[in-house]
User: What shape does this take?
Amino acid sequence: MDVTKFAIPEVIFGRGSINHAGQCALRLGAKKVFLVSDSGIEEAGWVDKLTDILKSEGIEWVYYPGVTSNPRDSEVELGAELYRKNGTDVIIAIGGGSALDTAKGIAILASNGGRIQDYEGANRVNRPLPPMVLITTTAGSGSDISQFCIITDVQRGVKMSIITRTLVPNISIVDPLILRTKSETLIIHSAVDALAHAIESYMSTISSPFTEMHSLKAIDIILESLPSAIKTRSLDALEQLSVASVSASMAFSNASLGAEHALAHSLGGYFDMPHGVVHPILLTAVMRHNARLAPEKMAHIGKVILKKSQGNNEETALAGIMKLENFFATLGVHTKLHQELSEKQKQYLEPICKVAVNDACNLTNPQPATWNELHNICMEVW
Amino acid sequence: MDVTKFAIPEVIFGRGSINHAGQCALRLGAKKVFLVSDSGIEEAGWVDKLTDILKSEGIEWVYYPGVTSNPRDSEVELGAELYRKNGTDVIIAIGGGSALDTAKGIAILASNGGRIQDYEGANRVNRPLPPMVLITTTAGSGSDISQFCIITDVQRGVKMSIITRTLVPNISIVDPLILRTKSETLIIHSAVDALAHAIESYMSTISSPFTEMHSLKAIDIILESLPSAIKTRSLDALEQLSVASVSASMAFSNASLGAEHALAHSLGGYFDMPHGVVHPILLTAVMRHNARLAPEKMAHIGKVILKKSQGNNEETALAGIMKLENFFATLGVHTKLHQELSEKQKQYLEPICKVAVNDACNLTNPQPATWNELHNICMEVW
Assistant: This one.
């Protein structure tokens, strides 16, 4: 085995774990916290809950609410300016991937300066970041665990992937109680996002025994728990989705992803589509493509989906992909591109695929996809 | 699920990963490293290799070779004195559990002062430790991953367990190439140690989905790979044992252990017996005891050992334990206490069991064992 690295934050997981946030901040030396969130989380009462916790530990804070879905370069720049101006020392973010990625972007600029575009790609952040405690409110993005940060460059209309070990926060808090306040759509989007992380990280050329174990476990749990999480909203099922998301995140943060995420970043950046919408459309088509390149690995995934082998590797792989397609169909989500895009928008797919081939995630696909291959995949799922 | 915590170091794993040691030290701000090892590792050439790596990065070092098997309080105290006197700033240790535990003990005293006895038990270390890079030369102790440190209090004749999250080093380097220089006996001892970590952490009352996955995977790999590692000494098999050891360590560091380790600490402290010798004697007897307390969990372990269920939970659990006994028998190791102790030493088992019930590991056994139960177990395997 080549040299492989595995880095994750300290994870505090479980019902009520948000109550540890103040102690965590203190442990990291906090006197004045920079608190990042968004209006949805605020309305659900979680920001108040969190500031009460900080107050009871005698910690001051500055609140930065300026987070939107698919966070933008300008939001990160403004946040970093406020971080510095206010003499804050630890960043706490509570929210979905957007709030957490905004916090990470702010952390980069706060200690490294420059523009967020300067850090696009892998390992371009040199100075250590301010300590971070990230509290996820979804079971999907994995931003609370990962060394990834996705920020939209508004002018270029591109979701930039920023990947570096220093983006792994100090502490990730995962409290399944927070999931109860989420809509069904968000639960599905998040679970599908985690599923795509698990599948693509498993197929990655830089997966390791440490990541593969997590990938396969996450696939198994999501297929098992998502239907009952939607139907019953039981805390047990939601908790299982959180476990799966943490596992999938530990995997993809260290193994990276593949061509499907490369395309999802590019497509999502262009049309402002969230990952949870894009994955059910693209994932199985990219899996068919990759099953030809790495049939044995795809058969391992097939075995987890089917809970058994079904013929040889190729047959098991394809049967697994078909069962996954049926699974998406039962969720009532869009599985064709034309359900999301107009006929007129079709023309942009070619430039979108040409951007996607340069996304860092495409490098670790079993074989980097060409723009033509990606375009064929888009046509296949049109 | 109750709130659970999962903390591990950054792991750098793979053939040749020792070459990253200098870069790791630099990343942690090293100017002058305190290097801990023992004469065996030195003779095998690994200390020279490591100092060459430090030299090439322009890092100075002070070498502390004073490590013995089952490290003692006095060795830790002397090390801490030298650490402070020499103005060193990062600790690097290379060796088995003894060298790494010595390094951890030195780290505690270097920044917290006092005597090492002051920190016995859980969470008694308050101040942050110097940065640590730990390089394991065995696939078993897990000290390079864990929040545990075992130091012998010579006067009391007790192995003290010191457990605190701050003992998780910054970076663990696991290089399977180092295992090639190890004897067959050491490979078996280490693998059996990792197996006991995996089994006891799985049965622990504070196991979590994040630790359980690692425990079961480690059991599976060790049973699969140890025979061929002994027979062929192939690098692939040794590497698999390293993977299993890392997995088992991630599990036990966060889930803790059980009654078997409590007894192994006490017995080992009294008679200076290494863990690898004690486990094949005690492990299956403690498993039989615990199978009555938690049959379903023990059946999960049985299923991994047998690769199938065999009747109901109780039957699967017991069949698994029997197969494990056969496995130990094939290794040609001692499986009875009388093979290690004289008839005259039998009288010390009672006080040994009375010490063991107070070991921190006993607390997370499916039910804490009484000294009488532990004594019965010792008699059963006499």
Q: What stands out?
A: Residues 183-380 of chain B form a domain with the Dehydroquinate synthase-like, alpha domain fold (CATH 1.20.1090.10). The interface with chain A takes residues 1-8, 10-17, 20, 165, 176, 208-210, 213-214, 217, 239, 243, 246-247 of chain B (CB under 8 Å). Strands of chain B lie at 4-6, 10-13, 32-36, 60-64, 90-95, 121-122, 132-136, 148-153, 158-163, 171-174. The mean pLDDT of chain B is 94.
